[in-house]
């Protein structure tokens, strides 16, 4: 598996783009490509990096805050403009089809009706596994201001856990167990941050889940700048979980 951290920032960071991952995996059905979350800044970051614009097979939306799904109209609009033919799946919790439809109607009315490709919405249900785009998916709910689902995606050999936003729960801990990489939101270094993770708690989470690699993303913009050295120190001391703070454009193969 390979992950490109297209963005690593929180919603309102003026420097770092919204958190967005681009997963590439080799499956028994061939190469598969998935985007995890698609906020305001995500589409252009993907377009710059993708050699083949039709490469993307699926999109995962963790929850319905704007920095995680308001980029969808631009992404689908470009698919229409380039006359995409390859089918495309959007995976998300109940209401994903309705919310995407409303966003598209606001941004580009009637555009979905003109699509030249098959668009499939796949409903994610915590505790239920499914297979789509040649990959195995499973889900668990964490604690956030708006309902958020963490996701585990496996190609049959390797597995990645992505939290979206939110505090870890026993359910997300179970979901992450045995994964090769956990990507977790950590809004602050430490302390009590309702509805969000912290760097310290995410390290404990990865350690409890037995995950060998932990990427910390979505750190609050002032916290990341003002406490950067302390964050890096805390992460470096967690050598047993290979904890790190990715920058936009960082690539990781595992």
Characteristics:
single chain, 254 residues, alpha/beta, Metallo-beta-lactamase, Chain A, seven-stranded mixed β-sheet, 14 strands
In round numbers, the mean pLDDT is 97
- First-last Cα distance: 6 Å
Helices and strands: which structural class?
A: alpha/beta
CATH structural fold name:
Metallo-beta-lactamase, Chain A
Overall form: globular
Proportion of strand residues:
25-35%
- What is the helix fraction of residues, given as a range? 25-40%
Radius of gyration, CA atoms, in whole angstroms = 17 Å
Strand elements, count: 14
Largest sheet data: 7 strands, mixed
The CATH architecture name reads 4-Layer Sandwich
What is the highest CATH level, the class?
A: Alpha Beta
CATH superfamily: Ribonuclease Z/Hydroxyacylglutathione hydrolase-like
Spatial strand sequence of the major β-sheet: 6-5-4-3-2-1-14
What is the H-and-E element order?
A: EEEHEHHEHEEEEEHEHEHHEE
Task: Walk me through what this model shows.
The protein is α/β, with parallel strands linked by helices. It has a single domain, classed as Ribonuclease Z/Hydroxyacylglutathione hydrolase-like (Metallo-beta-lactamase, Chain A), CATH 3.60.15.10. The chain is 26% helix and 27% strand. The protein is built from 8 helices and 14 strands. The strands form 2 sheets. The protein has a 7-stranded mixed sheet with strand order 6-5-4-3-2-1-14. A 7-stranded mixed sheet has the order 7-8-9-10-11-12-13. Strand 7 (130-132) and strand 8 form a beta hairpin. The mean pLDDT is 97.
């Amino acid at each position: 598996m390979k992950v490109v951290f297209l963005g690593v920032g929180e919603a309102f960071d003026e420097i770092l783009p919204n958190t967005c991952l681009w997963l590439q995996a080799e499956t028994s059905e061939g190469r598969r490509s998935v985007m995890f979350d698609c906020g305001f800044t995500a589409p252009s970051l993907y377009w710059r990096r993708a050699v083949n614009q039709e490469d993307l097979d699926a999109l995962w939306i963790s929850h319905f805050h704007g920095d995680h799904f308001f980029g969808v109209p631009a992404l689908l609009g470009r698919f229409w403009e380039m006359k995409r033919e390859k089918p495309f799946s959007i995976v998300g919790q109940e209401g994903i089809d309705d919310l995407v439809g409303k966003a598209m109607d606001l941004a580009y009315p009637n555009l979905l009706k003109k699509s030249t490709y098959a668009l499939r919405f796949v409903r994610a249900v915590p505790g239920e596994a499914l297979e789509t785009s040649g990959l195995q998916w499973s889900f668990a709910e964490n604690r956030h201001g708006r309902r958020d689902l963490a996701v585990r995606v496996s190609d049959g050999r390797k597995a990645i856990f992505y939290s979206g936003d939110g505090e870890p729960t026993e359910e997300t801990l179970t979901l992450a167990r045995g994964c090769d990489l956990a990507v977790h939101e950590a809004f602050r270094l430490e302390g009590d941050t309702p509805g969000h993770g912290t760097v310290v708690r995410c390290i404990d989470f990865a350690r409890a889940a037995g995950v060998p690699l932990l990427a910390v993303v979505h750190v609050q913009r002032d916290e990341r700048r003002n406490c950067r050295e302390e964050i890096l120190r805390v992460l470096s001391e967690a050598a047993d979980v290979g904890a790190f703070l990715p920058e936009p454009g960082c690539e990781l193969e595992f």
